[in-house]
Specification:
- The protein has helices spanning 27-35, 63-81, 98-108, 121-134, 136-150, 154-178, 197-206, 245-259, 274-286, 322-332, 336-348, 360-364, 371-387, 400-409, 412-422, 426-445, 452-472, and strands spanning 11-15, 21-25, 47-51, 85-89, 210-213, 216-219, 234-237, 264-268, 295-299, 304-305, 356-357.
- With 480 residues, it is an alpha/beta fold.
- The strands form four sheets. The protein has a four-stranded parallel β-sheet, with helices on both faces.
- Bound molecules: arginine.
- Arginine binds at residues 51, 54-56, 91, 93, 249, 252, 267, 269.
Length: 480
């Protein structure tokens, strides 16, 4: 085998124990590969529709939305860099019966001219909820409001719009703070599919895919059974004639495949909704909406846990608002870039399918597999380059640490390819950490300042790290 591997000019081959060959890549090959900037893996450009963040109106973003937002955004950046055409979709929860109580509460407070405390939408939601639960008269009015909203009553619609817009603005403010590339133009809320629901129902009915069950119209895609072993329904129209979350997702699926012409439809939503998406996709496949090789993928993820191993909550047991979490990050870190970077990297560096423990001390540490460690490596590179006494020159690989760094740098392209194929940003995170570690060894062993080759290698490492941080959506602090 060793004799037959003709890698002359590329690498030296050496037998290293039974079944193993050691390949030593020729220095000039390494150097040549490193000469240009990092390039994305070759790709057949596809249209990739990514549903992520997707919070609900009148509820502030909380830690549960953090993962979807951070993972989805990294994927959007990665796919775009690889040459794909990315459509970001923020599937805002802006429709449903809870709007009856929200609008009625708003109306009680003086309608559009009143002062609603919408700056604190969570408190507003809670007040409406308390009235709904404790006041029969209010509950009746809230129900009538739902009807008014659905039938397009003018003043009701206006109040609803105001609620939605206020929420959208508050989400975008959080996104800006977090460095998330979602804007107002990316919102396509549940309400935007309302006028497609009747036609979805017609189409599924015409294909014989719906069955009446206890007054509701349901699809029973093959292979889904409940605890009792009986076929499990996807409720398309409820017994009261209303449409719910599943119907909206069916319309959204059809829209993304047929109208947006997506090739890959990604749904970055927590693992508990896995069954919902598998069923929606199955019905969409049965209806022929995914014909022609469209792939619909639930990009699920685990939970964020507290130090006690239970769901991450505040001390008093409440869900933690994202805004409060970011405030704490600012307070704990030297700059917002470090705090935000730490939070995002802690999420992106772990396999999304698993849970992880939210631990400030660990994620803010400047050693280990953390955001600050990468940011610190980049800051050090910049400072070394500022102090260099020579211009960068041709790279010559003498020391083992130089070779190791050069080889590690070449891993970016395959790491990005794997991150894209599996929708796993941690594949890139792992690579970036290896680069930072290889640089740190190189920095300790090889004096850089007056060597044109090492200055060039350092600059190349800086470019690569900077790119990688950008692709994950991590900010680069000016100074650390
Ligand atoms: N608004 C939903 C929630 O907070 C998530 C929506 C996810 N996207 C979708 N197409 N269903 O749970």
């Amino acid at each position: 085998m060793a004799e037959r591997a003709d890698l002359s000019g590329l690498a030296e081959v050496e037998i290293s124990g039974p079944g193993f060959l050691n390949l030593t890549v020729a220095d000039d090959v390494l150097v040549e590969l490193l000469a240009g900037p990092d390039t994305p893996p070759p790709a057949d450009p596809q249209r990739v529709v990514i549903d992520y963040s997707s919070p609900n109106v009148a509820k502030e973003l909380h830690v549960g939305h953090l993962r979807s937002t951070v993972i989805g955004d990294a994927l959007a950046r990665l796919f775009e860099w690889a040459g794909h055409d990315v459509v970001r979709v923020n599937h805002l929860g802006d429709w449903g019966t809870q709007f009856g109580m929200l609008i009625e509460h708003m109306s009680d407070l003086g309608g559009l001219d009143g002062e609603f405390g919408l700056s604190d939408l969570t408190a507003f939601y809670r007040q409406a909820r308390v009235k709904f639960d404790g006041d029969d008269d209010f509950r009746t009015r809230a129900r009538l409001r739902v009807v008014a909203l659905q039938s397009g009553d003018g003043p009701t619609r206006q109040m609803w719009r105001r609620l939605v817009e206020q929420s959208e603005r508050s989400f975008v403010a959080d996104y800006d703070r977090l460095g998330i590339t979602l804007g107002l133009e990316d919102f396509a809320g549940e309400s935007s599919y309302q006028d497609q629901l009747a036609s979805v129902l017609d189409e599924l009915t015409a294909q014989g895919l719906l069955v009446e069950s206890e007054g509701a119209l349901c699809a029973f895609p093959a292979g889904f059974t409940g605890r009792d072993g009986r076929p499990f329904p996807l409720i398309v129209r409820k017994s009261d004639g209303g449409f719910g979350y599943a119907a909206t997702d069916l319309a959204a699926l059809r829209h993304r495949a047929r109208d947006l012409k997506g090739d890959r439809l990604l749904y970055v939503v927590g693992a508990p909704q896995s069954m919902h998406f598998q069923m929606v996709f199955a019905v969409g496949r049965d209806a022929g909406w995914l014909d022609g090789g469209v792939s619909a993928e639930h990009i699920g993820f685990g939970s964020i846990l507290g130090a006690d191993g239970k769901m991450f909550k505040s001390r008093s047991g409440e869900t933690i608002k994202l805004g409060d979490l970011l405030d704490e990050a600012d307070a704990r870190a030297s700059t917002p870039a470090v705090g935000i970077g730490a939070i995002k990297y802690a999420d992106l560096s772990s396999d999304r399918r698993g849970d992880y423990v939210f631990d400030w001390d660990r994620m803010l540490a400047t050693t280990g597999n953390t955001g600050p460690y990468l940011q610190y490596a980049l800051a050090r590179i910049r400072s070394v380059l500022r102090k260099a006494t020579v211009e960068p020159g041709p790279v010559v690989l003498g020391e083992e640490a130089e070779r190791r760094l050069a080889l590690t740098l070449l891993g970016l392209e395959p790491a990005v390819a794997a991150a894209i194929e599996h929708c796993e940003p941690h594949r890139l995170a792992v690579h970036l950490h290896e680069v930072a570690a290889a640089f740190s060894t190189f920095y300790e062993r090889c004096p850089i300042q007056s060597s044109p080759s090492r200055v060039a290698l350092t600059a190349r490492t800086g470019d690569s790290l900077r790119l990688g941080l950008d692709l994950l959506g991590l900010p680069v602090p000016e100074a650390m």
